[in-house]
């Protein structure tokens, strides 16, 4: 069942069943062997993120001392990013038309939250805002916070659990959002514990 939680934000609780989550996690971990998680850094200060990241697809989002950007190669290995798993391409084909969008995703940003990792309130402004962002959560539950397109505005929080899918488009595409905390140990899905978030995006 699809819930419209705010204009432009669609939520499907447990869209992926446990078995489907296990299969998706396996497909992700196979690709991660070719594109290991690494810790991005804040532009300017070089302070490391608490979240570890990698990407799949033709372009990947990276952050280092010199800035935020999309690039076709992994910053550590120098190799092209591996392909986006087929089940995620299928998810995009199912959902993107709700936003009058058909072209396939160019990027799947993969965020790994081990215990204690978080992501501060931010906007995603490094890609085209014409296309939606589609997010899949796996593993430990997270407290997700979302506001409006101005930093100072009111926010609300939403619990995201393993298998949940959220799509953000139209008026929500430039909304401030972040992950306040992870409930470490709340899921048995990910070996070693934690949460993985997959976001499908168009970049150009
Ligand atoms: C709303 N990731 O990778 S996913 C990110 O759970 C990011 O790892 C969070 O924020 C995570 O940039 C949240 C949900 C999400 C992703 C992109 C959005 C919400 C969004 C872009 C615009 C508006
Ligand atoms: Fe974001």
Describe the structure.
With 204 residues, the protein is mainly β. The protein has a single domain, classed as Alpha-ketoglutarate-dependent dioxygenase AlkB-like (Jelly Rolls, Sandwich). The protein is built from two helices and 13 strands, in the order E-E-H-E-E-E-H-E-E-E-E-E-E-E-E. It has helices at residues 18-32, 86-95, and strands at 2-6, 9-12, 52-57, 60-64, 67-71, 107-113, 119-122, 133-139, 142-146, 156-160, 165-168, 177-182, 195-201. The strands form three sheets. Strands 1-2-11-8-13-6-3 form a seven-stranded antiparallel beta sheet, covered by helices on one side. Strand 4 and strand 5 (67-71) form a beta hairpin. The model has no long low-confidence stretch (mean pLDDT 97). It binds N-(carboxycarbonyl)-S-(naphthalen-2-ylmethyl)-L-cysteine and fe (iii) ion. N-(carboxycarbonyl)-S-(naphthalen-2-ylmethyl)-L-cysteine is lined by residues 109, 111, 119, 124, 133, 135, 166, 168, 172-173, 175, 177, 179, 197, 199.
Structural class: mainly beta
The end-to-end span amounts to 31 Å
Number of domains: 1
Mean pLDDT: 97
What is the strand and helix layout of this fold?
Layout: E1 2-6, E2 9-12, H1 18-32, E3 52-57, E4 60-64, E5 67-71, H2 86-95, E6 107-113, E7 119-122, E8 133-139, E9 142-146, E10 156-160, E11 165-168, E12 177-182, E13 195-201
Antiparallel strand pairs: 1-2, 2-11, 3-6, 4-5, 6-13, 7-12, 8-11, 8-13, 9-10, 9-12
Bound molecules: N-(carboxycarbonyl)-S-(naphthalen-2-ylmethyl)-L-cysteine and fe (iii) ion.
């Amino acid at each position: 069942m699809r819930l419209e939680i705010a204009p432009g934000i669609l939520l499907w609780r447990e869209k992926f069943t446990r078995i489907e989550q296990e299969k998706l996690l396996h497909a992700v971990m196979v690709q991660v062997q070719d594109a290991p998680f690494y810790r991005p850094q804040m532009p300017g200060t070089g302070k490391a993120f608490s979240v570890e990241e990698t990407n799949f697809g033709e372009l990947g989002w990276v952050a280092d001392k010199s800035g935020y950007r999309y690039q076709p190669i992994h910053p550590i290995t120098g190799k092209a990013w591996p392909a986006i798993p087929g089940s995620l391409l299928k998810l995009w084909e199912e959902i993107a038309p709700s936003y009058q969008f058909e072209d396939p995703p160019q990027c799947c940003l993969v965020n790994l939250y081990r215990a204690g990792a978080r992501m501060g309130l931010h906007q995603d402004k490094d890609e085209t805002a014409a296309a939606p962002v589609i997010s899949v959560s796996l593993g430990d539950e997270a407290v997700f916070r979302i506001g409006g397109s101005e930093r100072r505005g009111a926010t609300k929080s939403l619990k995201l659990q393993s298998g949940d899918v959220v799509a953000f488009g139209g008026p929500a595409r430039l909304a401030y959002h972040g992950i306040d905390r992870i409930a470490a140990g709340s899921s048995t899905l990910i070996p070693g514990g934690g949460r993985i978030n997959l976001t499908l995006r168009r970049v150009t």
